[in-house]
Amino acid sequence: MTSDTSNKEFYTYDPNHALPATVLIYAGPPIYAAAEYNMLGRLMHYLPMYAPLHPGRLVYVFIYLGALVESLTAAGASIIATDTSDRDRIRRGGRLISVSLVLQAVVELIFAFTVFTVHRRCLRARGRLPRNVRILCLTLYGTSLLVLLRCIFRAVEAFSTYTVTSCNGAPCTSILYHEWYLYALEAAPMVLYTYWLNIFHPGRLLPREPTRYLDLDGSTERMGPGWVDRRSTWETFVDPFDIGHRMSGKPSHDEFWLRAGEWEVAEGSFATGTASNVSGSHRVWKRRTNADVATKA
Questions:
Q1: Which site among 122, 136, 201, 244 is 20 to 30 Å from 192 CA-CA?
Q2: How far apart are CA 92 and CA 275, in angstroms?
Q3: Backbone angles phi, psi at 232, to 5 degrees
Q4: Dihedral over Cα of 32, 33, 38, 43: its sign
Q5: Which of 258, 269, 286, 252 is CA-nearest to residue 212?
Q6: Distance between CA atoms of 28 and 70, rounded to whole angstroms?
Q7: How far is CA 21 from CA 2, 17, 43, 95, 209, in A?
Q8: CB burial of residue 261 (10 Å; 0-12, 13-18, 19+)
Q9: In the predicted model, is pLDDT for residue 145 greater than 80?
Q10: Which pTM was predicted?
Q11: φ, ψ for residue 214 (rounded to 5)?
């Protein structure tokens, strides 16, 4: 858009088109971010000994926060798109969008910190990350940075345009009349995000089963019981993340990974690149001992 006059010549406002277009433009990236949350949950199931909190519940918290961001974004975008002549209405919608963008940025920072916590714990314990975990952590860092970059741009745009009484100076006029901001800080990050997740797809790096975990030796994978919380239902409702027991140094979840001999060894290993999620490859197996071989012979 080079000028307000040329925009009026080539574009006729139609609320039937503007409403869904505006809502989808603003609501798309938060849905993209939900893919990151699921990846983090799968990573913490794969490395339960380094998970700071219950993997499944942590993912739900991020998803619910994402749903809140989505609701605020959709509400603000719909208010703006339904009536462009009422400046007060536009400001109200802009405030909702601004709040949603700031909230999404905060959620993204918390998400990145959680990834960093798992990464640091694994690195300290093992000294060197398995290849699949290293790639996944870098992927989560990179995609989170792209979403955060987009949030910052959209927040600056919202605070500079929707919530002001007039748009006569920078950065308002600069953002409105230069499309390269949109291409460089909105479109490009989301395109890179999409390609990144397709090139380093988590299905090639992590098992589909949430009970399959990486043993402490860094290469063997076993079929464990999954994350088991030994508390009663009301205790998990009051303290879903077991913060009380963690502060006392006695977490109530089962540390099943310390009893590796009880769990079957999985076929192959994603850590060594010898496992796959294709049909039939997720069956578990037991290594045959010399006695088994001799018996069958």
A1: 122
A2: 52
A3: -75, 170
A4: positive
A5: 269
A6: 9
A7: 21, 6, 35, 19, 38
A8: exposed
A9: yes
A10: 0.80
A11: -90, 125
